[in-house]
Amino acid sequence: MEPNTGKKLMQKAMNKTMCVLTAVMLLMVACTPKAAEQKVVKVYPAPEGIEQSTAYAVTANGQVVPVYQTKIPPKSPIPRLNHSRSEFGFASYASFDMNGKVMVTVTYPEQVQEVKVLPTSYGIVPEVEGKQITLTLEKPRQLTIEVNGDWHESLHIFANPFEENIPNPDDPNVVYFGPGVHDVTHVAVEDGTTVYIAGGAYLRCGTATDEQELEHLIGQNQRPPTFLLEGKNITVRGRGIIDQSGIHKKKRRYTIFAQHTQNLKIEGVTIVDPSHWTIPIQASEDIHVDNVKIIGWRGNSDGVDLSNSRNALVENCFMRTLDDAVVIKSFDGKGAVRNIHTRKCVVWNELAHAFSIGAEIHEDVTNVRFEDCDVIHDVGRETALRVYHCDDAMIRDVYFENIRVEEARRLISCWIGKTRWTESVERGNVRNVVFKDIFATSAPIDTTLTGFQDGPDWKPYIIRDHASMLLTGFDATHTVEGVVFDNVVLDGKVVEADQVKANEFVKNIEFK
Prior knowledge:
By secondary structure, this protein is mainly β. Helix content is about 5%, strand content about 50%. The longest helix has 26 residues, at about 5-30.
């Protein structure tokens, strides 16, 4: 053996041992609860100056999650279209990102006697101890927590997937809103631009004193929207909050308005107190709206309005809206509607429709699908699933499939007629509408709830026929034809023909 060979071998062995020990130590550090939480949960701190909710406290894997609050309609039924804004409640909402199993703890100010986690289809069974509610999430979800029977001022938990490919704030093609409070009036977005609203960013939307209407906007409201999207390859994304509560009723405008866009994506943001339609998308193609959360309470606070557009996917969204949640429209001369798909959304409708087509339909509408969605509350005077045709085009090939409605006053409607929104002289037609695997529960009859007769005068009437299903054609040449009820289950029983009201201008109804 050469001199020092033994020492060299010993040194090699020691080096190898140290490498193994170092690797073990690094693995142990990575597996500590704090490191594991950082990998599984991401929480965004609340910006200073934004009031927090005191109704609930939330943690995710032990990390404190900020809980915000926003206005919601009053608990009592809304009797007419222009409801009073002097009466309202507050909903609480909390948001975090996750990429693994997460334990969520909700603390309530009082002893918890009962708790409901919606949608029921998620099958989440919480544990209750004293004032605390604990539940486990296996994947991102949009939850509503109702404690001690309070369905009104409930808690909404938005568990998002982790973000990928976060844009560089120094990129000239990025409009970047970092953590903190931002006062925003109007942002015009053009070709190839990404608007990024980071987690922890809070956009307080207002109006400019010298603003002028934008005459080139499609539709009647031409006030500058908070975000105006026009062009190709535009994205609005992030985990931040857009709040329009500072916009007065007399100056209301759209929140995110898109027209003449192609390859549009809106993802991840939370929008509260929209002053008008929240996300109207008009005369556009190749659209993806994903994981957007909306809580609205004012008149016309629709969720997503898709008008004269083609090839759109709306998915994984939560919408608690006073007016329509997801609705399809077509205005005269702006192009047909084709290939619209809504799936895996959770909807709470306060007044109008959960998923619908209409009222304004001037151009043909073809191939619309609402699929695998949950309607956790439908407390209004209109119909949850509806084709509402007030003008002169053809509506064809509409599918409502695998939808769970946890309470329904008026469940299904296909209707052709004249209303206060009618603009065309002629009426249209409806062909091939499928209701398949619909599972609904009747809401209790509430004789204080008023609706409006379908017609130009809109005379009020008392809603007495809960969970109604109604098919109405206009005349012998403007008909509803080819409606299929395939495993529509109401209150645990498959719907039969005698439960569906139809007039003489409805043809070829099929029950499976």
